[in-house]
Amino acid sequence: MNEMTPPKEERSEALKGLGCSRKRVEDARFTQGKGNYVDDIKLPGMLFGDFVRSPYPHAYVKGINTDAAMAVPGVVAVLTAADLEPLNLHWMPTLAGDKQMVLADGKVLFQGQEVAFVVANDRYAAADAVELVEVEYEELPPLVDPYKAEIEGAPILREDIADQKEGAHGPRRHPNHIFTWEAGDKETTSKVIDDAEVVAEETMYYHRTHPCPLETCGCVASMDKVNGKLTVHGTFQAPHVVRTVASLLSGISESNIRVISPDIGGGFGNKVGVYPGYVCSIVASIVTGKPVKWIEDRIENLTSTAFARDYWMRGKISATKEGKITGLDVHVLADHGAFDACADPTKFPAGFMNICTGSYDIPTAYLAVDGIYTNKAPGGVSYRCSFRVTEAVYLIERMIEVLAIELDMDAADLRRMNFIKKEQFPYQAALGWEYDSGDYHTAWDKALEAVDYKALRAEQAERVEAFKRGETRKLMGVGLSFFTEIVGAGPVKNCDILGMGMFDSCEIRIHPTGSAIARLGTISQGQGHATTFAQILASEIGISADDITLEEGDTDTAPYGLGTYGSRSTPVAGAATAMAGRKIRAKAQMIAAYLLEVHDGDLEWDVDRFVVKGAPERFKTMKEVAYAAYNQAIPGIEPGLEAVSYYDPPNMTYPFGAYVCVMDIDVDTGVTDIRRFYALDDCGTRINPMIIEGQVHGGLTEALAVALGQEIAYDEMGNVKTGSLMDFFLPTAWETPNYETDYTVTPSPHHPIGAKGVGESPHVGGVPCFSNAVQDAFRAFGLKHTNMPHDHWRIWQTANKLGLHD
Amino acid sequence: MEIEDEIFINAPRDVVFKSLNDPDILKQCIPGCEELTKISDTELTAKVVLKIGPVKAKFSGDVELNNDGAPETFSLTGSGNGGVAGFAKGGADVQLIEQDGGTLLKYVAKADIGGKLAQLGSRLVVSTSKKLSKNFFEEFDKAVTGGDSTPDDAEEKSGFWNKIVGD
What we know:
The complex is a heterodimer of chains A (about 800) and B (about 170). Chain A has about 800 residues and is of the alpha+beta class.
């Protein structure tokens, strides 16, 4: 190395590659109010759409009179199902193989269902006209409780498919039954449990909630009738899938549809699906020849676009007297609402619920999930988690606690005794998954030591005694959770959505002066892709992350990809980025060899340059190579320096973590006070520690919300009781505790850079941790299980039932 | 939702009973009532402006009276539709008990609401309904006993909370 070359470490640092806590490049615009969201898009002559929605959860629509609405000055059109029917767009396919009404076709099936679409010159005229559309309803009895779906005399919801005995996921036993999905070995499991020394059983409700992103769903559809080109700007977590679906539905060639996801103000799963608002806006634009904007208000967002959870879960877990788990049997009654519009890979109608054996070496297991129609909004998305993984992890982490009570054992010891051991990876789980890697014991021991677990238990025992002596009215809960996520959907061999394999992609162009642009098939909704993917690339190709522009979300320019949800961006598109970078480097090496007049095998890569082996003073930097690639005729090598990679992951990745929550609970008010929250995450190779920490904070706060109060509750009449932010709990700085974050690093063996994905882990692990803390506080007083959300009122009731107010 | 309350009215029972069947008196007393039309002895149609929290809507509906238990009991059922604001249905059972030369009016009212009213107003509905029933019977008392029957505007406008809940 000559004197001119800075040392390796210095050059490496200058790249701002893997492991650098690089500041988010997106924040400059976001913090200055310069983001460009869908509602910021204003096109010449743009019209506005607004929905007439059903006040009834279940009713026949006997007639719709639009005369008064049409008479409002500025109203251009009022669309009803009758207008969409000739185009065959009054119904649309869902992601789960069902179909869904775009506008009420003779019947409404949930409160807030779209009945008519008013299009007007401005929002005010549209809103006024919505009030004047007269809809005649004939009320029908609503079905709100999924347990009553199949009893005699239950109202039949989906009369359109009442006679179909076969659904998209197998046989249907009742008109209100959607599917039964099974995994594992039913017979052996039942035998193991019957013969077991100890069995614990519990039924728990993982309540319906909603991702509630800060920005609601919306779009601007613009049909250019001269060129035959349709452009749709929208809040899409999967823009390429939207383009394909739009083409299939409308018959417009995919090359004439351009879908653009601009800046998105949070998605959390809510923006994966295709909603009637998109279809109606597109139709209205085609009909009027003008751009049409549709933006949901908050009530519409909470009550009509994709909810999450709503699983009634019954678990049976068996063990030896010493605490070695022998079997797990799980049944789920899944409330899917009026249409099966869950966003899961097609072959997985209950998502990856079969990850419910968790982090434990459980030899035998069986899972059955029954999907049920009710008069509630459709959806069933994975709210800040991979497909149904929060439900799975909640179930097993509660079952472990219930088993610990049954065995009269410490729940931390019980977990430790049953963890899958480091040497068992890759681990074949009883319900089908192959866990790629893990080191659970190390993570668990580190976590327990960090919080001084033994001291916490001693303090808790002392508190219980003090409570019994009447010296305090506050109990202390120690919440534990150890989770394994399954993210990065997924291998095309078993993961597809509507037949589209779940690969992802990256395309890179290196410019002559040595900067670059990379385009991906994913779309950031706040995750910081422009920051982190540039870092992956910086380490691969030796160009500073600051010189790499990242673009996503425009289907005319970005390569095809399946989008961003289920923590799949880093495991799949991140891998594509690394692989495309390696293609660039391979070509660059040949160019460098020509320039240095050596064989390409005589070169070695050194951070940002190719160096002749044994002669460090002879090198070509990537910047020099880029210039030569465009400006020098090199025999046998095409000019330019570009690469594209489509990455089909060989397996999922399995991030994991160990969380501990210490909580004080006021028995007389039900108020919870989180004294300490410790979160250890292992997401494999860490790309940007600062972004990881931010993701963990966000995920934990959403976990706190779900565990302690956030729900979409229906009354027995089918009304949504929590349809606005007055009743729907979103934590603010006031409710949010301080978080301590920590990590271990167990790289994924099959991912090009060993990364696993982290955005959703804290939510998956956080919900059971908060919930376990509440339940643990009452363990000494005989509580086995109580359902979330643990708001003050419910906690007070729990204390009351246990006789703690006597 | 169920509301139970009682009010003493300083008038003989048959007068109270008759007044409960008198559309003119009812119209005066029902908060927000704009129209009340008698279709038959037991059927009425009504237009009422109702405000619960942020939702304000004009409801049109039918009311059916049941006089079978006259003059000791009286009941009514009704339903109304407020368009996008939602719908309401319900009824009330009223008992009229002779007491101290006047009448003790006991009532149990039941109401179910749906649509945006229920979504937005769930935490306001009970308090608003209680207040509306109370207003009704206070006005009714004034109307029957000949007191001042104009609504008490001063009370309605006072207080931060009343402005918030809007009733």
